[in-house]
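Repro:
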Amino acid sequence: MHLFMFDIDDTLVNSSGFEDECFTQAINRVIDKPIETDWSKYKHATDTGIIDEIIHTWGYSQRKDEIAEKIKNAFINNIKQHLSKSPANEIPGARSFLSYLSGRKDILLSIATGGWEETAKLKLDSAGIDYKNIQFASSSDHHSRVGIMRCAERKHTTSAILSKTYFGDAVWDKKASKELGYMFILIGNKLHNEKRIENFEDIDQVMKLTGL
């Protein structure tokens, strides 16, 4: 079996633009302090990891759970409001590619996102991406991207995995893939990577990159 694992933002769904704005607004609503919005500068570039670091930086650790919950709820509301006015779009070909992979008996499918489960699924639903039969892990499961990817992989009961491929768009995706021994395929052009595609429209091209 071959494991194919996917990020969501700017990998399956064209969402990082409004996602970042909704996230920052939620933080600012709860914590009236300046924050770093270059997520790559955080130790763990996930929703949980970023919030934990901000709370620690500003000395709110004793109220960590309360503050994190308020930010999360504000973020969920922001995403809902945005999507009600402007539904999310898939990265071209994402739905068709997942459907194709689902029909292959030699492929295991997972989603491993640094976002919280609630907001991640709101975006997938809005973009019309069916994830019901795909193993799913998120920042609700672990604070680190490596931990999230491990959670997603462990949900597959088979131990006979011949290859592992991760599709993502950001430097933290590439770093985690290297640490865990995944082949990394870059979606878009945010960084340099040997294996790169703009979208999933050419299924033959994508599969050629995976070696299958």
